[in-house]
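<instruction>
Derive structure tokens from the sequence
<data>
Labelled lines for chain and fold:
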Amino acid sequence: MGRQAENTGRHWYVIHTYSGYEDAVREALLQRIESLGMQDMIFDVVVPKETQIVIKKGEPVTEEKRIFPGYVLVDMIVTDDSWYVVRNTPNVTGFVGAGTIPVPVSPDEWKVIKRHMGQSEPKFKIDFGVSDHVVVLDGPFANYDGIISNIDEEKGKVKVLITIFGRETPMELDFTQIKKK
């Protein structure tokens, strides 16, 4: 067995796929595990994703975004047979590792990945930047122009400097309340 050191047991491994085919690879691999009877060697296949809130046409939309485009995680015991099943799944370009030997994901890396995936609150993904000129869409300052002075992606808030009576006044607004000018 030349694929891995003896008795290294069950670990998460990273496989490289053609970008955009991650979900298709997951489905194909799950079918292959079933049809080839590899359930005792390959246990789970995951495409790590996180939920983000993206503003489209002024409306907040929740989207699933791949955390690592082009990669799929596989929970498996590597043997010649299990390696072959994974490696020969359509759109898989190989294992991440040294040569043909897959390198397991470290427990620390796995914790980080799980934290990203297990995020209950969606993150805001916003295409605004500090010092962008914006227009306020609603609230008491609707139609006022302003300049972004601060962005808090975690809370989905921006500080906008709005000129009122000749003075710049900072206002805290939601991402959904502004649009680029």
Summary: Helices lie at 22-35, 80-87, 107-117. The first strand starts at residue 10 and ends at 17.
